[in-house]
Amino acid sequence: MAHNSLIVTSALTLIVMSLLPPVLSVSKVFGLGPGPQIVSDQFPSQFAYPLDQQDASFACSPFTPLFIDGPIFVSRTARIGAGPEPQFQVYGASLRHTLIEPWLEPVNMTDQIVLADSTAKAFTMNDPTVAFQITFLEYSGVKFTYSNYDPETRCFDVALKRKWKSKWRLTVGETPEAKDLDTLNSLNTGTKFCKDNLVIRLSRQPLKRY
Question: Is 165 left (phi over 0), alpha (psi -120 to 50) or beta?
């Protein structure tokens, strides 16, 4: 009898899955029980929650509200067919208390930046074709700009900007030590990347530069 019940349950599960709209997928979500979970591919998903940015010193700052959505972050960065979408790791800082603005068209960036977890250090985009600029408000307003994503090649442009005499240095590369882009000796710099995973690093400018 137990064996027959299991067969009936499995058959009913398959029927329910076949009736789900295409936007829903079944995947195992860590920490949500032993079985597969039905996870929407739309962001924010039912598992998303807002990033805590409560800080009295930044009560009047124009920082951008963001959502943490682990399942969507994984689905966006682990796609097999179309290839993974770009993801970024932030070292020396985070996306907490940052201003994120659309670069080319009016878009609500709260609906575009997908955080992996509450550290706000790893993120990807809901739509990689949306260009945007991140201003790190706590770090002299240094800026990171992402634009011109090409779905065919999965390449995109990155530009960095800092103020004159800024104490903060912004670099981008494949590792925390890599400096494919560097504001050390330049106020503005930029290049094209064709990588799935890049590191954005903020650090103090050296006292002496040679």
Answer: left
117 SS3 class: coil
Name the residue with tokens 């940052």.
98
Written as six digits, the tokens of 27 are 């995947």
Q: In which band, very low, low, confident or very high, does the pLDDT at 36 lie, cut at 50, 70 and 90?
A: very low
Residue with tokens 């499995």: 10
Cα–Cα distance for residue pair 117/31, rounded to 1 Å: 13
Q: CB under 8 Å to 196, separation ≥6 — which residues?
A: 77, 83, 84, 85, 86, 87, 154
First to last CA, the chain: 80
Bridge pairing between strands 113-115 and 142-150: unpaired
Mean pLDDT of all residues belonging to the chain: 81
Taking the CA atoms of 10, 13, 17 and 19 in sequence, report the sign of the dihedral they define: positive
112 with 95: CB under 8 angstroms? no
pLDDT digits (tens, 9 = 90+) for 107-146: 999 999 999 999 999 999 999 999 999 999 999 999 999 9
> How far is it, in rounded angstroms, from Cα 96 to Cα 186?
26
> Model pTM?
0.78
Q: CA-CA distance, 30 to 28, in Å (whole number)?
A: 6
Query: 3-state class of 75 per DSSP?
Result: helix
* Number of other residues whose CB lies within 10 A of the CB of residue 7: 10
pLDDT value at residue 136: 96
pLDDT at 32: 41
